[in-house]
What we know:
Elements: E1 9-17, E2 21-23, E3 26-30, E4 35-36, E5 41-44, E6 47-48, E7 66-70, H1 74-81, E8 97-99, E9 112-115, E10 118-125, H2 130-135, H3 141-148, E11 153-159, E12 161-163, E13 168-173, H4 181-188, H5 197-202, H6 211-221
Parallel strand pairs: 7-8
Antiparallel strand pairs: 1-4, 1-8, 1-13, 2-3, 5-6, 5-12, 7-11, 9-10, 9-13, 10-11
Amino acid sequence: MANSVPELSFPVLSVQRGKARPFRGESEPSAIGKFPVAGKVRVHRLGLDGDEQADRTVHGGPDKAIHHYPYDHYDFWRRTIGAHPLLADYGAFGENISTAGLTEDMVCIGDRWRLGSALVEVSQGRQPCWKLDHRFDGAPVNANVVKARRPGWYYRVIKEGEAGAGDVMRLVARPWPEWTVRRVFGLLIAGDHKRDREGLEALGAVAALAEPWRARRAKLLDP
């Protein structure tokens, strides 16, 4: 593990939360619709106060308490799928945290960030599902998330607190600097393991990686 920690800080542009509701005509509810919140929001072990996840079998829980998606990617999506109305505001991808300047190639599994008065730790990247395509009226968002390695990432909450737009996120620990979210997503989701088995094996040393992605790694090692 590395002892030095880069001096990284980024302003929080917006904090979003949402309620479970019927999803675009589907019988299955979803809370992917997230909307900006004014003021501070309580950050607890399972996420933001007032935020919901409809299907707890695949969403939410301690390792997926908070979803962070870079606002930097919105221009990419406008070029890729067009000026969809959802891209006019924060929260288009169901994210809780929006920042500019911080992307998957700069964030590592196990990073600990001060978020307002809370302390959070990067647990895994986001694995896209059909709801993104459906939310964007059938545009090929899922495939392009994988192809472009732009998934966003999840945090677990190490210390509860409060956070809001205007706060500054600061990196306080980086134990696995070689394991960026982009690299791990490439290995486990985007097929890079086919040409980098050594990397897939080495990923086992990253103790902060969320259990579902550890299980996925084991499956890819022994298909």
